[in-house]
Amino acid sequence: MAGRDLRALFSTNDHTLGTAEAFTNRQAQWEFAVAALAEHLRHVDNPAFDPEDLEAARDNVVVFHGIGGIGKSTLSRKFEASLADPGQRPSQWVAPEWSQARILPVRVDLARSASPDFEKVVLSVRLALAAAGRPLPAFDLALRRYWEHQHPGDPLEDFLNRGGLTARFGKALPQQMQSALADVAQALLLPGTVGSAVGQVTGALVGALRERRQTVRALAGCVRLADLLESEPDLESLSYYPHLLAWELARTPAAKRITPVILLDAFEEIGDRTHRDFERLLQRLVWLMPNAFFVITGRSRLQWAEESLQGQLDFTGPTAWPGLAAHDIPGPRSESQAPGRERQMLIGDFSFEDCDDYLARRLSAHGRPLISDPIRTVIGQRSHGLPLYLDLSVMRFLELRRGGRAPQPADFDHDFPALIARTLSDLTASERHVLRSVSLFSSFDIALATRAAGVPQQASALRLVERPFVRETPFGLWPFHLHGLIRATIRDADDRTDDRWSPADWQQAAIRALAALGEQWSGGSDRDRRLLVGCLRQGLAIARDYRLDLGWLTEAAWTYVGDSVWEPLDLAAGPEGAGAAATAADALVELLSALARRQHENRARTVERLAAVADTGLLPAELSEMAVYYRAKAQRDLGHTEGSRQGMQVVAGGGGRLAPNARRGLVHLSRLAGDFPTALESAERLGWEGRHHRVVGDVQWVQGDMSLAARAFGAARAEGEEHGKIGEAAMSQAMRAFALAFTNDPGIDDEIDLGEHLLAQVDLRAATLDVRIASLLRDAGTDTGVEDRARVLAAEISTSGLLFVQAKLELARAFHHAVRGDRAGVASSVIRLRELTREGYYAYYVDIAHFMADLALDTSSRARWLDDQRTVRRRWRGMVIDRRALLTSRPGTGAP
Length: 896
Prior knowledge:
Elements: H1 6-9, E1 17-19, H2 27-45, E2 61-65, H3 72-84, E3 102-109, H4 118-130, H5 137-150, H6 156-162, H7 165-169, H8 172-187, H9 192-195, H10 198-210, H11 217-220, H12 225-230, H13 235-238, H14 242-250, E4 258-265, H15 277-288, E5 293-298, E6 344-346, H16 352-362, E7 363-365, E8 368-369, H17 373-383, H18 387-402, H19 417-424, H20 429-438, H21 446-453, H22 459-464, E9 470-472, E10 480-482, H23 484-492, H24 503-523, H25 529-545, H26 552-563, H27 584-597, H28 603-616, H29 621-638, H30 641-654, H31 659-672, H32 676-683, H33 692-702, H34 706-722, H35 726-740, H36 748-759, H37 765-778, H38 786-800, H39 803-819, H40 823-836, H41 844-853, H42 869-888
Parallel strand pairs: 2-5, 2-6, 3-4, 4-5
Antiparallel strand pairs: 1-7, 7-8, 9-10
Helix pairs in contact: 5-8, 16-17, 17-18, 20-21, 21-24, 24-25, 25-26, 25-27, 27-28, 28-29, 29-30, 30-31, 31-32, 31-33, 32-33, 33-34, 33-35, 34-35, 35-36, 35-37, 36-37, 37-38, 37-39, 38-39, 39-40, 39-41, 40-41, 41-42
């Protein structure tokens, strides 16, 4: 706890309300700073350390940076309090390593509200050192000369009183400065009246230093003192006086030595990347005081290690600042990491647990949290871990109570425009424009940001991505993304900033953003599936949220469907929340989602979803045709063959892209009905677009001609690979493995392995099940747990609603029983097959089960076989006999 929360205290008349400032965690930041400070102490205690060495690299600074509202200033204040008084250190913060060192924390607020200037910074440091009670004559003489020249008639004591510095640090400095002046005058044997005139004293002192007089030997050790006293006493000279402080600190006896820890907060407010005058002065302070330790907090990384800043700052590059040249790290340095490196840390968001802890302790009543668990949960989830959002939510809680009603969880599903003001406050106009534009994207790169903003140069985007609210995933498709809460607030909050966008501005930006995604997709490789899916996800969200025409999304959807990979495309709810489809993009999202999810849902659910999409009337004709076609496919899988036939006929008659597929679907329906001559004749006219080879294979394996079927499936696989359709290649190989698994083909293991390899690249549930059935067929007739594996597989298939796959599995079980001569098992399979094919489709599976077991048919077959029935029977019975012979020749296989 840091004390009373006055803002909350003055927001209510309830005197029983506990309003305490809450400080949560940040243990990693403390450990990081303490480790660096301990290393600094060891460095300055080394006898070889020389504070007057102006060429040695500097490693006396750590930087904490993060977005506005992340808690940097709170962290800086807590650092100061913990270093000044161990009793103020949070319990979870470990005690520092040092024991004898005297640490003197000095915190300087650089925020504009504190009216900072370089004089105040230097005076704050000197005043803090004055509290230690040791004179610093070299610095004090230079400072006194500067003050009388720059502020004639304005005594330093009066200035300190007006600025509140005396109240903070005490009144010791003016007396110490006067004492230093008198001591030097006495050492130079100057008369008392002269000793009060700083100009005469410094003039005499410079002469004595140049002449190396014994009387000033104490100050003669500072080799640059004379030069500083002779220089023009202006702000430029003042910026070099910290060198004198460093020298004075270094000559302090070891037992009384003090290490200043100077905390510079709100560093982003001292200027910008064009105007670095104040920053240059502060950098000199850090460089010229190598025995002081600096903790800088601000919104952006410190750029001092970049060589490109030569000329703007005095000391630049990784050689000068090795610790500032490393990348951000998520936590404190480990023991294995080299010392003096990685001195910049990005301050991350609170965890959900930290958010809850903060809210629970912030307001209390009778010792219990005033904000209830459900409200804390909503706030924590909405905050994305940003402390400023938690603070704003606390004030909203008090505001609602002040209005006379009890706050409810729904009251905190809320955006705060204040977040926008904090985020935009230190951005240029062009950076703000780009920021609003990229808030349309879940992730982006420089090209997307520039194109969406509609600006000709990338400079603003390049500057923006260096900001802490822009996160980077180096190996992502698009490497940058906005902090979640910042993105949501910029898009959704009631923006009252001076350069806020109108609805028309947002609409134009959305049009540019959608076009930019389309350009990236069309400019990429045809095989770049990752780019396709990424563009679809982002493009669909933008088109949905801003009711844009589908444009290039239509062609992208066809490409997505054609590859049969089926990555999930489910999008987060749009601005209007979940509900019925309202735009063409809504309908397309649901269409593609239903097609992808059909690999993991019951086909009945797929039919339901696709029917709803088709009925919206929101999709253009060619995409509506896609919904009708895949609904017909799902109906066929469920055994609803009449509905499937009607859908296929509609699509085939339309002559669109899926007409060849629909014609193939009608051929499959003929095959399902057992009309094999018609199916084979039609297959020969389908061509590649109708997947003719696979259709031929589907007809031939049922005839028991596995050699011909395998050749057809192999040709289909090769054709699919030739056209870059991995899904088609995988489905064809799965059926090739299935057909060959009935035989004693010695290469069946390789065929199954190849099927699994191809299917690993796509998401095809039915084909994956085909390969698993093939592995059962390969082991049919053995004691390798075939029945147990079949029962497990049957349970999985039943949840999918894939009726035809269930029938295939039962046919495989019938083959296993026939090989083992298990007539009861065959009879059970026949019963199950009759139930699965009671609608009349796939009824020939019952015939095949009889053929395999050499049983007479109970009823006459309704199938029209390609050859006479006797030939088909002989083929199927021959495969059973061949498997028995193979197993008999292999002892230990459990052959009958």
